[in-house]
Amino acid sequence: MSVTFNGKYLEPFIGAHEYDALQPQVTALHKVLHEGTGLGNKFLGWINQPETYDREEFARIKAAAEKIKKDTEVFIVIGIGGSYLGSRAVVELLQSPFYNNLKKNTPDIYFVGNNINSGYLNEVLSLCEGKEVSVNIISKSGTTTEPSIAFRVFRELLEKKYGKEGARGRIYATTDRAKGTLKKLATEEGYEAFVVPDDIGGRYSVLSAVGLLPIAVSGVDIDELMAGAKAAKDALATDDLSQNDSYKYAVARNILARKGKDIEILVSYDPAFAMMNEWWKQLFGESEGKDGKGLYPASAVFSTDLHSLGQFIQQGSRTMFETVVHFGEAKTPLTIGKLDEDIDGLNFLAGKTLDFVNDRAFEGTVLAHTDGNVPNIVLEVPKISAHEVGYLIYFFWKACALSGYLVGINPFDQPGVESYKKNMFALLGKPGYEEQKAALEARLGR
Ligand SMILES: O=P(O)(O)OC[C@H]1O[C@H](O)[C@H](O)[C@@H](O)[C@@H]1O
Fold first, then answer.
1. Region 274-300: what's the mean pLDDT?
2. Which of 30, 36, 249, 397 is a Cys-bridge partner for 41, taking CB atoms 3.0 to 4.6 Å apart?
3. CA angle (404 as vertex; 257, 267 as ends), nearest 5
4. Subcellular localization, per the record (predicted)?
5. Dihedral over Cα of 39, 41, 45, 50: its sign
């Protein structure tokens, strides 16, 4: 097993019999999930995806990535939510958060269309000056405002730079197989198109073309990523809690929620994991947070945040627990040197690696936070590799699905996201929203 559930530090908070008590529910809900009889059952394509994914499209993704690596210096990835977080998370974790600054033979990658800030977009535009640019527009619906606006801007840039025909060969559209504005445009313009499968929702789409094209462009081995997910699919196909660590994680967080915890903080000791935190927040937040229920997904990177949030976690309101993703092996170890004169008093660490120190910080923190009544789940991941990350992604997917069913909600929809959108469209004066506009303007005192 690649990702293992370490429940050692949970023992003061959860007794073994509490897991056993939930086994019958897990067995029943596992059946519901695998037989597709539960809520949101139109969106279960991810369960078998690591095995059944479209090989022909996978080969096209690799070919497109190779072309982009050859003819592109700046690759612009346009998308928001599930159409952006996963690919950025995997690139930053497996390559580097400094990916664009590395000396490398792959293009720089900028993620846009994930906000509506003009400063951000202007800065990325200026980074494209004098560079060979290609664009991947990613939207399952094809109608999301943020990426649509950014695509307008970059399409214009490409058409000005390369002409209409030249731009066509540099635009890649990842969207619905058959419907939606973006699909229509891609067909009309002749952009190379990749598919977001009908039965896979945005937050479960990182291992489809949505994530795979940008990830492949960054030089990550996508075969290994898929092989890791496949290993997880096979290992996590059982309902037996003693054999399925993904379900055990789901159950532990469910028990803690029933004991009054409201917040789960996903913790890593690697800053390269920061965007994985963000990906995980969408996965669990959008899946579980509905009908007045769900754990609020928060995140922290230690030891950085021990110097900001650490005080609150140790002694503030006792509403949270932590889930630490602990990697066993560092990507590139670094050893601490010895000074002739021990001016900083750190010679006792000479010859030790930074990871040795980081691991003692981890152990010390887990024990301190546990003493402070913050339960700690630890997920052990042997190392940072494409295989392990593929496994981890699937591990979280599966845990999230079971978790949602345990909470009694539909883990695969997100109706609440529409509320702000409707208001925004009305306030922007979108045709058809006239009545709402008047009501909202009155509430805003205009
Ligand atoms: O891929 P898209 O259709 O553009 O959607 C992008 C994102 O925005 C929506 O508002 C949903 O809440 C997310 O689940 C989705 O991942």
1. 98
2. 36
3. 55
4. Cytoplasm
5. positive
> Does one domain contain both 210 and 276?
no
Are the C-beta atoms of 379 and 5 separated by less than 8 Å? yes
Tokens for 22? 């939930």
Range of the domain at 152: 46-223
- 307/347 same-domain check: yes
The CA 286 to ligand 1 mean position distance, Å, reads 10
In whole angstroms, what is the distance from residue 44 CA to residue 200 CA?
A: 6
pLDDT over threshold 70, residue 204: yes
- Residue 74 counted as domain residue: yes
297 Cβ closer than 6 Å to some ligand 1 atom: no
> What CATH number has the domain bearing residue 369?
3.40.50.10490
Strand order in the sheet with 296-301: 4-6, 376-383, 320-329, 263-268, 296-301
Give the total number of structural domains in the chain.
2
ipTM confidence score: 0.98
Q: Is the peptide bond prior to 303 cis by the omega test (within 30 degrees of 0)?
A: yes
> Residues 95-118: pLDDT tens digits?
999 999 999 999 999 999 999 999
Residue 137 has a CB neighbour count (10 Å cut-off) of 26
Residue to mutate (ligand 1; options 43, 77, 80; most atoms within 8 A of CB)? 80
pLDDT at 1: 60
Strand 4-6 with 376-383, pairing: antiparallel
Q: Are residues 85 and 155 in the same domain?
A: yes
Could you tell which of 46, 144, 278, 286 is best to mutate to test the pocket of ligand 1, judged by most ligand atoms within 8 Å of the CB?
144
How confident is residue 249, by pLDDT bands cut at 50, 70 and 90? very high
Q: Could you tell me if 317 and 245 lie in one domain?
A: yes
If asked whether residues 74 and 178 sit together in one domain, one would say yes
- Catalytic site includes residue 286: yes
The Å distance, Cα 187 to ligand 1 centre, comes to 22
Whether 119 and 27 map to the same domain: the answer is no
